[in-house]
Structure formats: structure tokens, C-alpha cells
């Protein structure tokens, strides 16, 4: 149980807007860690800072114990941090295989080795039959898989997944979840931003909740989902109290009329 | 094809090398040699623009630097042309690196990068026109000294074969590049720079390498131009004509392909010659610049109907032919 990624007091300001405010979180080696929060909470911005696409205004990011706060994105990728994009960014003019091979070239200098690796990763994420297709022709689900495959082809230690399930239908989500689990089983640690709660609940070991740029809760998904502060962040001020009152009223109603809930 | 990847290149080069054995008129030989020089300039542009997606409107800056360096190293310093040529190419590479460093570090992309390269070419042109060292507006004349050791050939075929050798080398180089890690990174930067960076691609370094290589290759075209015509002035070396031809040839032939610049240069110059001759015969006198009209029309046709160039068009036809067969 060692810490792979440690974010300490990271803030990111864009002019007067504070997108991330003194956020800290840790990702344990071998875990699937979730980062959730309402829209506009700063999840993607925090991801961007962790991946090195934007410099942090304050705070430090440590990976495998080393301070990587000042390193550019490509060096972080070299050290083993890969990310996907919420808005998919395929190399539209290239085939699926060539797309994945760009990632594979990070660890393989020779073309045939990179292409072999691309084939293997393509099959792993279920893109096997589509390897020769142009990436521009893929469906939304296919593009999400391609994002995953490309990041995976860089042989990362830490995979940052930014809403890989968003925009998928329920059956596509069911198909995708075992893929994510298999990636973890193969030894890759995952930090995932996700809105699909069903997926967060079943995939994540630990969840961090970001609201208005701050981490307001952290812990196992079950406990976090019952945290009053989290409920308020999603549903508005006073929501937790109202829901609690509603629960009590329902319990009282059942107490007065024990057969009611069977009717 | 996968076992003999250089076979198509070898066939094309041998075919081109045999041409002067059948076609011996001076006009044809001049045309062929000139087409090879333009191909070379265009291949340099293609590596940066076609593979790397960084469209330069000012490749004259590399062509002119190569041409002037070749001439001045001989005239002012008495250096043998065979030695001057690699030096001139190195200078072209250096100018490429410097322009790349200034513009890519400032994160210039797309039309901003294009405009900056155009500005650099103009600055070089005006400077060469004003500076005494480069011969000013009078230009610079390389003394006529026929002989292989002076890279001046009495037999026009030799000049053509020399240019063809360079073209062959850059075809092989471009092919190797397109299958290398560097090539994959370059194309990834063209398609989506952000995504490329996420996959560990150092976008700045990749673009710098590309523009340096591009500068060296296009400079070699300038060197051969100097040796062929033995005269230069600022408008020939740094004029917009070469910037335009260097970018039109790959666009018309096929952007980001190995043979695109060669096909484009031959089509472009061929049609230009045919039009000039046709108009001269029709009107009884040459109309200067009529070939530029043809270039413009070609570009419009290409952008509208053949965005992948002549090669892309040919591939499409071949594919349909194969598909039509039972």
C-alpha cells in the first residue's frame, strides 16, 4: 500500500477564477481511485495539472515520491503518467492502429515493435476488428476506446481517465467496465474522473469529491455517497437535511401503518 | 512491398535516370534538371508542411540561403563547390533551426507561422538586395569553370543526374522518415498536438528537427540552382516564386507522401511550360506570368476536387478499378 501519486495543496487560478483551490489527494499504488464532483468543480483542471498540461499556481505533485510539479507533459508521459481526454482527440487522418502506435513508439523505437504493441493493446480494449479503419470513422464508443488504447500503449504506471464512459449508452458502459478492471489487474493504477455513478461505485476503491475547486470528502464510495457534504454539493444547500427529514417521515409512516409499504 | 520497401523508389529513379538517353534536346534536359531542383525544394517543404503540418509560405529563405552560400563561398572565399555544398546545406539547416526556435517556442501555429516565415523570407530578400557582400541588386556571378571538379558540366545530362541523385536520396530519406518513430511523432503533431504531447511526444523538439531537416534539403536545391545558372540575385534566390512552387508541388502531388513533391513538380512545371508555349504560339509573343495563372487554377482544382493531390486521385481510381473487377 504505497502512494503512487500525491497531490499536495494544488491550486490553479485562471485570472480571477480559482478553478482548483488547495486540493490534496493521494492515489495508492494498484488502486482505482475516483475523482467525482458536480459540473464545473475543477476535476478536469486538476487532471490537467497532474498530467502537466497546465502549470499549478501553487502546490506540488509527486509521482513515485519524486516532485514532478515543474515537468512538461511529455516528460511525465515518459515517466509513466498517461491521460485520456474528456473530449476525444483522435489523430483523425490515421488508422486506428497508427493512432495506437504513436503511443507505443514511446517505449519502442522500431516500427514493427510499436505496431505489434499497438495490435496487442487494440485487441485488449476491444478494437481488434477496427484496427485498419480510419480513426475519423469510429463511433463515440469506438473513440473512447481509442483514447484508452493510445494511453495504454505508452505502458503507463498511472492512467488518468477523464470521463471515458461519458456519452456511452448503458450497454456500452457495461462492456467498458470490465476493460477498465482488466487494466487495473494488469498492474496499472487508475485515477478516474467520472459522472456515471454506477461505474464509480463498482469500480473505485477510494473516491475523492471535488466541489468548487476544493476536496470536500474522501473515502470508500459507499461512505462518500452518504456524506451530507457531498449530497449538498450535488443537490444544493439543505438537501441533506431535507432528505434526512424525509427518511424520518417515511420511517414514522411505516411505524404507524406497518403494512403500508407492502401495499 | 513490405520486404522490398525501397523498390518503388528504385524503379522511379532508374526510370528518370534513363530519360536523357531517349530525350536529348536541350530544352527537355533543362526542363528535367529544373524539375529535379524544384522537387528537392518541395521535398524539403513536404517534410515540414506535409508530414509536420507546419505550412511555411517562406521556404525561399532556405532555398536562397543555400543558393547564396554556394555562390559566395566560391566567389568570396574560393572554396570548392563540392565542399561548399555541404556547408551551404548546414547553413540552411541552421537558418531553419533559428526560425523554428523563434516561432515554435512562441507557439506560433497555422496562419501565424505561415506569415512569420513569409516575413523572414522578405527580410532575407531585402537584406540580400541591399548588402554589398551578397552583391546587392547586381547579384553575384559564379565564374564559368567547366569541369566536374568545379561542379559545372558541359554535358547537361550530368547536371541532371547530379540533381536526380539528390532527389533519390531525399526520396529514400523521406520514406525512412515516414516509417520511423520521428515520422510517427511528426504526423501525430500535425494531426493533434495536445494528444501527441499526452503520448510523450516532445512537440517542440519534433518540430525543430523537422524544420532543420527541411531547411537543409531546400538549401541543397538552392545550391544546385546556383551551379546550374551560375547567377543569382535577391529576387531569384529569396523571391516568392520559389516559396510558392515549393508548397504548390507537394499540395498538387500529394501532401505528406514520399512521391508527392516529385509528381507535383513535374505536373506543375510541365503544364507551365505547355501553357507558355501554347500562348506564345497563339499570340505570337510570350506572356510573362501566364504559367502562374495555370498554377493558381491547378491549386483551386486540387483543393476542391483532389485534397489528397494527384497521387490520392490516382489511388482512388486504382481502388475503384480493383473493386470493379469480379
Characterize this entry briefly.
Chain A is of the alpha/beta class. Chain A has helices at 43-51, 73-79, 96-104, 111-124, 140-153, 170-185, 197-203, 221-226, 228-235, 239-256, and strands at 3-14, 17-28, 32-36, 58-63, 66-67, 81-83, 158-162, 189-193, 206-211, 214-219.
Task: Outline the secondary-structure elements.
The complex is a heterodimer of chains A (263) and B (326).
Chain A: E1 3-14, E2 17-28, E3 32-36, H1 43-51, E4 58-63, E5 66-67, H2 73-79, E6 81-83, H3 96-104, H4 111-124, H5 140-153, E7 158-162, H6 170-185, E8 189-193, H7 197-203, E9 206-211, E10 214-219, H8 221-226, H9 228-235, H10 239-256
Parallel strand pairs in A: 3-8, 3-9, 6-7, 7-8
Antiparallel strand pairs in A: 1-2, 1-4, 4-5, 9-10
Chain B: H1 7-22, H2 26-51, H3 60-75, H4 81-105, H5 110-130, E1 140-141, H6 156-178, H7 181-191, H8 193-198, H9 203-229, E2 231-232, H10 234-238, H11 240-253, H12 260-283, H13 290-305, H14 309-324
Antiparallel strand pairs in B: 1-2
Please characterize this protein's 3D structure.
- The complex is a heterodimer of chains A (263) and B (326).
- Among the domains of chain A are: 1-80 and 156-220, P-loop containing nucleotide triphosphate hydrolases (Rossmann fold, 3-Layer(aba) Sandwich), CATH 3.40.50.300; 227-263, no CATH class.
- Chain A is 41% helix and 24% strand.
- Chain A is built from 10 helices and 10 strands.
- In chain A, the strands form 2 sheets. Chain A has a 6-stranded mixed β-sheet with strand order 6-7-8-3-9-10, with helices on both faces. Chain A has a 4-stranded antiparallel β-sheet with strand order 2-1-4-5, with helices on one face.
- The longest helix of chain A has 18 residues, at 239-256.
- In chain B, 75% of the residues lie in helices and 1% in strands.
- Chain B has helices at residues 7-22, 26-51, 60-75, 81-105, 110-130, 156-178, 181-191, 193-198, 203-229, 234-238, 240-253, 260-283, 290-305, 309-324; strands spanning 140-141, 231-232.
- The longest helix of chain B is centred in the middle third of the chain and has 27 residues, at 203-229.
- Classes of the chains: A alpha/beta (263), B mainly alpha (326).
- The interface between A and B is medium-sized, with 31 and 20 residues.
Amino acid at each position: 500500500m504505497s502512494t503512487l501519486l500525491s497531490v499536495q495543496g494544488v491550486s490553479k487560478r485562471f485570472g480571477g477564477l480559482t478553478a482548483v483551490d488547495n486540493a490534496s489527494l493521494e492515489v495508492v499504488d494498484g488502486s482505482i481511485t475516483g475523482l467525482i464532483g458536480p459540473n464545473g468543480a475543477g476535476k478536469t483542471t486538476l487532471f490537467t495539472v497532474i498530467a502537466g498540461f497546465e502549470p499549478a499556481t501553487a502546490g506540488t505533485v509527486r509521482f513515485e515520491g519524486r516532485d514532478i510539479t515543474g515537468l512538461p507533459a511529455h516528460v511525465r508521459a515518459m515517466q509513466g503518467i498517461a491521460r485520456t481526454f474528456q473530449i476525444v482527440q483522435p489523430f483523425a487522418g490515421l488508422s486506428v492502429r497508427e493512432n495506437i502506435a504513436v503511443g507505443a513508439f514511446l517505449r519502442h523505437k522500431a516500427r514493427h515493435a510499436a505496431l505489434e504493441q499497438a495490435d496487442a493493446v487494440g485487441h485488449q480494449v476491444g478494437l481488434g476488428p477496427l484496427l485498419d479503419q480510419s480513426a475519423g470513422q469510429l463511433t463515440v464508443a469506438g473513440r473512447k476506446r481509442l483514447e484508452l488504447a493510445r494511453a495504454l500503449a505508452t505502458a503507463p504506471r498511472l492512467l488518468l481517465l477523464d470521463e471515458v464512459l461519458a456519452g456511452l449508452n448503458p450497454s456500452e458502459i457495461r462492456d467498458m467496465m470490465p476493460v477498465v478492471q482488466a487494466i487495473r489487474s494488469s498492474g496499472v493504477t487508475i485515477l478516474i474522473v467520472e459522472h456515471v455513478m454506477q461505474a464509480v461505485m463498482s469500480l473505485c476503491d477510494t473516491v475523492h469529491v471535488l466541489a468548487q475547486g476544493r476536496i470536500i470528502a474522501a473515502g470508500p464510495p459507499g461512505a462518500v455517497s452518504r456524506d451530507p457534504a457531498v449530497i449538498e454539493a450535488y443537490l444544493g444547500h439543505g438537501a441533506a437535511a431535507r432528505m434526512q427529514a424525509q427518511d424520518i417521515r417515511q420511517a414514522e409512516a411505516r411505524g404507524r401503518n406497518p403494512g403500508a409499504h407492502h401495499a | 512491398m513490405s520486404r522490398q520497401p525501397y523498390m518503388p523508389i528504385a524503379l522511379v529513379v532508374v526510370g528518370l535516370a534513363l530519360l536523357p538517353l531517349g530525350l536529348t534536346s536541350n530544352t527537355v534536359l533543362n526542363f528535367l534538371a529544373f524539375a529535379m531542383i524544384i522537387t528537392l525544394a518541395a521535398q524539403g517543404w513536404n517534410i515540414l508542411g506535409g508530414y509536420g503540418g507546419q505550412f511555411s509560405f517562406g521556404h525561399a529563405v532556405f532555398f536562397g540561403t543555400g543558393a547564396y552560400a554556394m555562390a559566395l563561398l566560391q566567389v568570396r572565399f574560393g572554396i570548392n563547390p563540392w565542399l561548399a555544398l555541404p556547408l551551404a546545406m548546414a547553413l540552411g539547416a541552421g537558418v531553419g533551426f533559428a526560425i523554428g526556435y523563434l516561432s515554435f517556442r512562441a507557439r506560433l501555429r497555422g496562419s501565424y507561422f505561415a506569415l512569420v516565415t513569409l516575413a523572414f523570407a522578405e527580410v532575407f530578400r531585402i537584406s540580400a538586395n541591399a548588402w554589398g557582400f551578397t552583391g546587392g541588386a547586381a547579384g553575384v556571378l559564379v565564374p564559368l569553370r567547366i569541369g566536374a571538379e568545379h561542379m559545372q558540366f558541359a554535358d547537361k545530362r550530368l547536371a541532371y543526374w547530379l540533381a536526380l541523385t539528390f532527389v533519390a536520396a531525399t526520396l529514400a530519406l523521406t520514406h525512412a522518415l515516414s516509417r520511423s518513430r520521428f515520422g510517427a511523432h511528426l504526423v501525430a503533431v500535425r494531426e493533434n498536438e495536445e494528444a501527441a504531447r499526452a503520448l510523450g511526444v516532445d512537440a517542440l523538439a519534433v518540430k525543430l528537427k523537422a524544420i532543420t531537416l527541411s531547411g537543409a534539403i531546400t538549401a541543397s536545391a538552392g545550391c544546385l540552382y546556383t551551379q546550374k545558372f551560375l547567377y543569382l540575385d535577391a529576387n531569384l534566390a529569396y523571391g516568392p516564386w520559389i516559396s510558392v512552387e515549393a508548397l504548390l508541388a507537394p499540395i498538387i502531388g500529394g501532401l505528406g507522401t514520399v512521391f508527392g513533391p516529385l509528381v507535383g513538380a513535374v505536373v506543375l512545371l510541365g503544364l507551365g511550360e505547355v501553357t507558355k508555349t501554347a500562348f506564345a504560339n497563339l499570340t505570337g509573343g510570350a506572356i510573362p506570368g501566364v504559367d502562374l495563372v495555370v498554377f493558381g487554377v491547378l491549386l483551386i482544382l486540387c483543393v476542391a476536387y483532389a485534397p489528397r493531390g494527384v497521387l490520392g486521385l490516382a489511388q482512388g481510381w486504382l481502388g475503384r478499378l480493383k473493386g470493379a473487377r469480379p
